[in-house]
Amino acid sequence: MRTIKYIAVHCTATKQNATVEAIRNYWKRNLGWKQPGYHIIVKPNGDHERLALDETVCNGVKGYNRESIHVSYIGGIDDNGKALDNRTEAQKRTLLQIICGLKAKYPNAIIQGHRDFPNVAKDCPSFNAKEEYKHL
């Protein structure tokens, strides 16, 4: 069992009509990753897919993957590729439910966005996850 220090919140930095299959193919074909970028991904309708077991080290935040669980929503950019919190209400509800469950499982884990890790020059997840989930 891994020691989980972080619950990292992400956006896919894609349009909301991106498919999980297309995102997985990008990781494999363009980036050459053997493991996914996230453990769980949330679709615009609120459905979610488990992409990896908690025990799997995913590719979410370079240098922090061994101690992190990664959760993402599909979206996070506008039509020009700029950061935009465009989570649907269904995504917000599902993210909260997933993150609450992970926090119960890993009570000492810090919840934060990808952008909150040191040396990250991204706006991901396009909202302030630390602030939004500070009550958990």
From TrEMBL:
Residues 2-126 form the N-acetylmuramoyl-L-alanine amidase domain. Coiled coil: none annotated. GO terms for molecular function: N-acetylmuramoyl-L-alanine amidase activity. It comes from the Bacteria. Pfam families: Amidase_2. GO terms for biological process: peptidoglycan catabolic process. This is N-acetylmuramoyl-L-alanine amidase. It comes from Paenimyroides ummariense.
